[in-house]
Amino acid sequence: MAKYVCIVCGWEYDEAEGYADGGYDPGTKWEKLVEDGFVCPLCGVDTDSFEPA
Prior knowledge:
- This protein has one helix and three strands.
- It is an alpha+beta fold.
- It has a single domain (3-52), classed as Rubrerythrin, domain 2 (Single Sheet), CATH 2.20.28.
- Strands 2-1-3 form a three-stranded antiparallel β-sheet, with no helix packed on it.
- The model has no long low-confidence stretch (mean pLDDT 98).
């Protein structure tokens, strides 16, 4: 499982943990968030502003 971090504010998405507040269960791959048009819950940037942690 991978982790991705927002380069603007530092918020981190961990595939192993998911993001319950956003509706993503543990084990949800990053690609699913990209497909869904996910934005950072802290600063609002899109997935292009994330990099592998």
